[in-house]
Amino acid sequence: AKTHAAEKTYEIGTDVTFPPFEYANDNNKYVGIDMDLLRAIAKNQQFNVDIKPLGFNAAVQSIQSGQTDGMIAGMSVTPERKATFDFSNPYFDSGVVMATSDKNGVTSLNQLKGKKVAVKTGTAGAQYAQSIEKKYGFKTVTFDDSNNMYEDVMIGNSAACFEDNPVMQYAIKQGTKLKIVTKPANKGTYGFAVKKGQNQELLKKFNAGLANIKKSGEYQKIVNKYLNAKK
Ligand code: GLN
């Protein structure tokens, strides 16, 4: 992308691999719904972005320590996070689902007693799992990225994982050998985030750009490009 000297560059943290929202394509470029939306908004509002694929939890930490200006990572807007982040207007709906492998025969929460469940550090899915782990009698094991979490279920170490519904659906469509066995819980939305009280001009530009690309149809075009994509 071209950089214009007069335009400000913001450092934006994101996840390492969270398709269809962010992932490296064959040319090692970060693409996905979040990446395309952010670039379209930046273009519309005349700022530059320097994308840092840090991993979800590291992106959260890096905002809080002031190393990055903002983050976009399929990040759920939650009441807890609102204490330390300011969020943009919502740009996508999500919720947490449980996924299992055909091999282990687990199809419900009630079958998790005494079993291990894979979650991703610092995520809404992990928080949901931890909120019900006593009730269902399972233990959580944590991973830093979604692929390793899925893998742990596929090899049979964990009986299930908790992941965002649109992300799990997309992974399964792309060939990941897991299946979704619950309805989405803790439904909510994704938002772009900055540290609470900081980078308010960036947040304003994000919201203004988002409104513009929704109006122009570019938002829907980006979403469709990824969600209607064949393997
Ligand atoms: N939406 C979830 C969250 O905000 C997961 C995000 C992610 O794994 N990138 O915690």
What order do the helices and strands come in, and which of them pair?
Blueprint: E1 9-14, E2 23-24, E3 30-31, H1 33-45, E4 48-53, H2 56-64, E5 70-71, E6 85-87, E7 92-100, E8 116-120, H3 124-136, E9 139-143, H4 146-154, E10 160-164, H5 165-173, E11 179-180, E12 185-190, E13 193-195, H6 200-216, H7 218-227
Parallel strand pairs: 1-4, 1-5, 8-9, 8-10
Antiparallel strand pairs: 2-3, 6-13, 7-10, 7-11, 7-12
Helix pairs in contact: 1-6, 1-7
Glutamine (GLN) binds next to loops.
What do these coordinates show?
The chain is of the alpha/beta class. It folds into two domains: 9-91 and 191-227, 3-Layer(aba) Sandwich (D-Maltodextrin-Binding Protein, domain 2); 94-187, D-Maltodextrin-Binding Protein, domain 2, CATH 3.40.190.10. Helices cover 35% and strands 24% of the residues. The protein has helices at residues 33-45, 56-64, 124-136, 146-154, 165-173, 200-216, 218-227; strands at 9-14, 23-24, 30-31, 48-53, 70-71, 85-87, 92-100, 116-120, 139-143, 160-164, 179-180, 185-190, 193-195. α1 (33-45) runs antiparallel to α7. The radius of gyration is 18 Å and the shape is globular. The structure holds glutamine (GLN). Glutamine is lined by residues 15, 18, 56, 73-76, 94, 120, 123-124, 164.
